[in-house]
């Protein structure tokens, strides 16, 4: 059973006007209904976002997270369904631009649901300990920086970091 997205869209639109409706039409928000309910906010569930840099499909990727940082760990602790909002930015795929919007979505739902944004492959400034591409050829996409590669990059991210099977809205 999918959550009442229209009611949530109305809540969020008070702060961001028609931008939220644009997101809904473009289908950039993912509803994931297989992960568990988070419950009350914890120390990990701060109002400030957490930025993580990782390799996905062999390319440096930035993930901005509001809510739990590891959904695989969270899903093993509970069994109730929950929602995960995944934001895929436009071009350029810089996730920091969406921080205020993501914080508003996270707060609008009482910090019960994680809100994550995943950058486009290579559209980030990785820390000094990381290069733009991974040294290992494991899980690489031939042209991860091209259009088809960017699509595959997002699918790989969902497979690796979001447990269960997502439902899209």
UniProtKB/TrEMBL annotation:
A cellular component term, taken from the record's GO annotations: lipid droplet
MF annotations from Gene Ontology: lipase activity
UniProt KW keywords: Hydrolase
InterPro entries, per the entry: LDAH
GO biological process, one term: lipid storage
Protein name as catalogued: Lipid droplet-associated hydrolase
Native species: Aldrovandia affinis
């Amino acid at each position: 059973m999918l959550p009442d997205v229209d009611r949530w869209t109305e809540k969020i639109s008070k702060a961001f006007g028609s931008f939220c409706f644009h997101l809904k039409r473009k289908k950039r928000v993912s509803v994931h209904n297989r992960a568990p309910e988070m419950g009350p906010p914890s120390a990990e569930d701060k109002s400030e976002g957490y930025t993580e840099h990782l390799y996905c499909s062999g390319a440096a990727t930035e993930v901005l997270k509001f809510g739990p940082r590891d959904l695989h760990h969270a899903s093993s602790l509970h069994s109730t369904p929950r929602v995960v909002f995944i934001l895929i930015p436009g071009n350029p795929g810089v996730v920091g631009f969406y921080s205020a919007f993501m914080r508003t979505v996270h707060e609008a739902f009482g910090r019960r649901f994680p809100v994550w944004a995943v950058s486009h492959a290579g559209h980030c400034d990785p820390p000094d300990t990381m290069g733009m591409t991974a040294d290992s050829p494991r899980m690489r996409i031939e042209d991860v920086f091209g259009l088809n590669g960017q699509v595959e990059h997002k699918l790989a991210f969902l497979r690796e970091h979001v447990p269960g099977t997502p439902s899209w809205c």
